[in-house]
């Protein structure tokens, strides 16, 4: 599935998951802010849960 830049800049939540980044909120794309340009509560909470389970 492809997502356009306009669609990406208007998403409610965006984050990357991987072994090295765990759950990492995305707040900017191509130096443009995504919505409020700060991590959302869900991404922060997912990261906390991931860290708890990893330890």
Account of the protein in words:
This protein has helices at residues 5-9, 41-54, and strands at residues 15-18, 22-25, 28-29, 32-33. It is an alpha+beta fold and 55 residues long. The chain has one domain. The strands form 2 sheets. It has a two-stranded antiparallel sheet with strand order 1-2. Strands 3-4 form a two-stranded antiparallel sheet. The mean pLDDT is 85.
For the structure shown, list the relevant keywords.
55 residues, alpha+beta, 4 strands, two-stranded antiparallel sheet, single chain
The average pLDDT value, as a whole number, equals 85
Count of individual beta strands: 4
Strand order of the largest sheet: 1-2
Order of helices and strands: HEEEEH
Question: Which helices and strands, and how do they pair?
Answer:
Elements: H1 5-9, E1 15-18, E2 22-25, E3 28-29, E4 32-33, H2 41-54
Antiparallel strand pairs: 1-2, 3-4
Quick rundown:
The chain is of the alpha+beta class. 35% of the residues lie in helices and 22% in strands. The model has no long low-confidence stretch (mean pLDDT 85).
